[in-house]
Amino acid sequence: MPRFIARNYLLFLMSAACLLLAFILPYFEATENTAKFFTADNGQNVARRISAVTVVAVGEMLVILTGGIDLSVGGVAALSQVVTGHAIKVWGWGVFPGMLLGVAVGLACGVVNGVLVTKGRIPPFIVTLGMMLATRGAALGITGGSRFGGFSDSFKLLGGGGTVERWWIPFVVMGVVVVAFAVLLNFTRFGREIYASGGNLTGARLSGINVDRVRLGAYALAGTLAGFGGLMLASRSGVCDPTSGDGWELDAIAACVVGGASLIGGEGGAFGALLGALIIGVLMNLCQLNSMPNEWQRVFIGVLIIALVFVDNMRKRRAGKLKDG
Fold first, then answer.
1. pLDDT digits (tens, 9 = 90+) for 83-102
2. CATH code of the region 48-318
């Protein structure tokens, strides 16, 4: 138990903060909205909103475990849904083939990121920043900067939308993704190689692990999940928007860090990404119920990431896992 608490102390800390804010905020500003936090409808709303972000955060977690970073997930999500919508509305494809194409676009973007990082030896920050700009530009170019909808209920099914709203569908899809990747990370050779590559890159290479293949696979899966998350978002709203997924890079990284991931690699997991996304989602929900402007919500999350990384680094320095210089 002490070891479990030490590994997940950030989750305990943030969970306590969520509960504290939930009980305290209504007394400072007693509005109709603050009273809605503990209702079933609000719980369903939070579950529906975090589903797509959690799927993207799981992919981000894979990259972070290898010691990398992926800043392109939001742009890849937007491009995937735009390509899917274009295939369905303009080319006359069916919903399922169009969605497969969107996921394939995410996979292709992830593979390009992985190849440039592993073979081109370009820092992940630069590669994924460039991919973020390229995918955003491509999404805006394909649509002319405008959003479009008018999709059938079969398209809206994945996100729980349509004539009859089914909030639980994206939540179940999210759960399947989290469980699948938890099994991948903990009970497969590839998962263990991801942890080994992030924990000690040189040691992993000397032990016979094909580190480049592992890192390439992590980026490819991250791109695939980003594309799939973008489709979940478009399916929920029924609209393909080239500006959607804005800030998902921040949300995904925040969820991973809150969920116990180390930005130097080797620590974290799929369930940590889920719990981190849930905590961030609850905090954002509390901010919205208390009428905090969107701009200040982003400020809050940004400061939270910096504070958590600082605390995590201090803990690692005390444990001898991180040295200055």
1. 999 999 989 899 999 999 99
2. 1.10.3470
